Amino acid sequence: MTPSNNTQDKHADTPTTDTLYASPSDIVEGFRFDDKVVSVFPDMIQRSVPGYSTIIHMISQLTARYAQHDTHCYDLGCSLGAATLAMRNGLGAKKCHIVGIDNSPQMVARCQSLVKEDTPEHIDIRIIEADIDGVDFKPASVVVLNFTLQFLPIEKRTALLQRIAQALVPGGVLILSEKLAFDDPRHHELMIELHHNFKRSQGYSDLEIAQKRQSLENVLIPESFPSHQARLKEAGFSGVELWFQCFNFASMIAFK
Ligand SMILES: Nc1ncnc2c1ncn2[C@@H]1O[C@H](C[S@+](CC[C@H]([NH3+])C(=O)[O-])CC(=O)[O-])[C@@H](O)[C@H]1O
Ligand SMILES: O=C(O)C(=O)Cc1ccccc1
What we know:
It is a single chain. By secondary structure, the chain is of the alpha/beta class. It is built from nine helices and seven strands. It has a seven-stranded mixed beta sheet, sandwiched between helices. Helix 3 (52-66) runs parallel beside helix 4 (82-91). The radius of gyration is 18 Å and the shape is globular. The structure holds the ligand Nc1ncnc2c1ncn2[C@@H]1O[C@H](C[S@+](CC[C@H]([NH3+])C(=O)[O-])CC(=O)[O-])[C@@H](O)[C@H]1O and 3-phenylpyruvic acid (PPY).
């Protein structure tokens, strides 16, 4: 089977539109990656994260640039495998061990079948159900955390990044995409407003935006770019740069 060049193909043809927050609810529950979210996830993330498909495409390019023969390439918090498949496409003829990890059993089950049906047998690719907090990383050249670290309790973030830095081989990189907070309150509010305008332009109603915001409260905890930069340096990375930003959504590259 020929793998698709466009990593979004498998996801773009999922017809299910995200209407999870469309009806008024007395109690908005904390956001969870359950069956309901899995069934609408490609549509939800595409319409909620400005620049998501650009970031996915660029992960292929960054993988092409930084992946090293006979090392591991990790996609941590892989959801339905969009970044995993982007990494696979970026490898070309390089032989690497691709590992996608997620702790949502529903995500993992769907991701395994999507990846399997799109990947030739000879490619070494595995999707594992695990908490990234407890994984023992093998020598790696490219590690991706595409909008995952923001869901890990703040006190666990440094230890995870230290373990990633230790596992990276010389010349290896971490690609870290996150929703950002900003120190200047005016700018912080402006970015939230522009993000909500983006969601409105994607067809979400004010009610959907408000209820989703409430469900993400204390579940998705954004930090500022200077905080990420300082923590990554403390964890053992020698350099940290921003390579993409649209409003309060950004992607960084951290060099071992
Ligand atoms: N401790 C954890 N261990 C493992 N997985 C976790 C953990 N916490 C959260 N997750 C998983 O991290 C993923 C975050 S979504 C990533 C999108 C994807 N990267 C993409 O490029 O499409 C981002 C979003 O929905 O905003 C979910 O699948 C969680 O189950
Ligand atoms: O929808 C939002 O407001 C977000 O911050 C992005 C998002 C996308 C998918 C799941 C959770 C959060």
